[in-house]
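Dear H.,

Thanks for agreeing to be a second pair of eyes. The structure we're designing against is below in token form, covering all 415 positions.
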């Protein structure tokens, strides 16, 4: 610890924080990256590994609240709220309900689309400068539906993607689906294929590889836990479990824990936690040709290294309730019924905390302390997808440049 103010401190060493520190460094800044556990030690290590640039629809879709009673009654469903958490999440749910109205929904789709265009281009820039192309799989994504009714309900989403210029192919019989992914149950009669979709071979290793680029160029990283933030006249004071840091600027990108830090400087941001579950198998018993999304069941299957990962669903349960790994087991059982040749005898379960705001848009914004503190959190399912783009936008804000994306929809004060 030092009494001399550090140029800029980045709090959180998940994929958003690592990408941000790397981008700041590339622009001539001298960041210090800090995290309470380590590089990619929490949510960024266990996601599905997808760069989902076509996913522009928020979770709060029009009419979704009609299904809300089932979230309490079915603790193992694709979207659930543990009864023990229902009262605590009620204020967030009111904002979620408002975000599902048609006007707010359309605004969110427009804002997310703009951000996604930027993030896709930013990812290619990051890949060319710092990434390893061998860690990226460009195998597409197959989103599966059981029956005509489910497919017809999803058609407006696919039409919207087509209107946005996203390359899609709609499939209407099991044989066409089998041409892309053999071995699936023929109960899947319809699908949408997104050939431009791509994944990393391993999200933890991807984040670690970017962190190595940062440290190899002289970037500093420390494992410390932030306990308090205090604005001073010309710097920020950061109290940690190992002493006090002084910083000219701070970036808060601590994922699902970010709102607790924001509150210490006077900002109340309605961040909730989508607890996601998965099971990873070190070796794959099936030849997975593409990223599979089981749309009606809320989970995916993706290749991770030489194995595969089955995970997803949404449990709005906060940071403190114990995990319910029965949710992970249910997803594996379903996957086995959907791909009968799948061997599920040996897997490792995991739960992660996705930081979620009611309108499914992140906060990329100065704080109430001005540009001394910049927020970059709340990306929900899309942290990996939006990491490179968010890093560029944060670096613009930190350097006083005009961002290339209108950040008004991502303001910390929008709620």
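And this is the sequence the design step returned. I haven't edited it by hand at all.
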């Amino acid at each position: 610890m030092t009494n001399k103010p550090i140029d800029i401190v980045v709090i959180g060493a998940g994929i958003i924080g690592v990408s941000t520190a790397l981008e700041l460094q590339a622009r001539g800044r001298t960041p210090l990256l800090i995290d309470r556990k380590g590089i990619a030690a929490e949510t960024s290590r266990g996601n599905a590994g997808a760069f989902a640039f076509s996913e522009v629809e928020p979770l709060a879709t029009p009419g979704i609240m009609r299904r809300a009673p089932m979230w309490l009654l079915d603790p193992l469903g694709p979207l659930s709220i543990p009864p023990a958490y229902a009262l605590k999440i009620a204020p967030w749910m009111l904002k979620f309900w408002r975000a599902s109205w048609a006007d707010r929904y359309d605004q969110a789709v427009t804002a997310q689309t703009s951000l996604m265009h930027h993030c896709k281009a930013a990812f290619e820039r990051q890949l060319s400068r710092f990434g390893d192309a061998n860690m990226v799989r460009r195998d597409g994504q197959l989103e599966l539906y059981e029956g005509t009714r489910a497919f017809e309900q999803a058609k407006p989403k696919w039409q919207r993607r087509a209107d946005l210029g996203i390359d899609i192919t709609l499939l209407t019989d099991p044989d066409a689906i089998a041409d892309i992914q053999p071995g699936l149950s023929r109960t899947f009669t319809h699908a949408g294929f997104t050939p431009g979709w791509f994944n990393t071979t391993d999200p933890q290793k991807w984040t670690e590889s970017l962190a190595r680029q940062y440290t190899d160029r002289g970037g500093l990283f420390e494992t410390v836990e932030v306990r308090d933030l205090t604005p001073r006249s010309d710097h920020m004071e950061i109290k940690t479990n190992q002493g006090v840091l002084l910083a000219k600027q701070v970036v808060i990108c601590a994922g699902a824990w970010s709102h607790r830090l924001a509150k210490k400087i006077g900002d109340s941001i309605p961040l909730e936690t989508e607890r996601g579950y998965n099971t990873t198998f070190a070796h794959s018993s099936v030849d997975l040709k593409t990223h599979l999304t089981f749309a009606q069941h809320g989970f995916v299957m993706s290749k991770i290294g030489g194995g595969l990962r089955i995970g997803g669903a949404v449990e709005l349960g906060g940071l403190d309730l114990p995990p319910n790994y029965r949710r992970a087991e249910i997803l594996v059982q379903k996957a086995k019924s959907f791909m009968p040749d799948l061997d599920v005898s040996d897997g490792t379960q995991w739960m992660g905390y996705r930081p979620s705001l009611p309108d499914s848009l992140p906060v990329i914004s100065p704080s109430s302390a001005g540009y001394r503190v910049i927020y970059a959190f709340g990306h929900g399912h899309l942290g990996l997808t939006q990491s490179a783009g968010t890093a560029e936008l944060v670096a613009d804000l930190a350097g006083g440049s005009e961002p290339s994306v209108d950040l008004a929809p991502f303001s910390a004060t929008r709620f």
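Two observations from my side: The chain has a mean pLDDT of 95. Residues 46 and 352 are 7 Å apart (CA to CA).

Warmly,
E.
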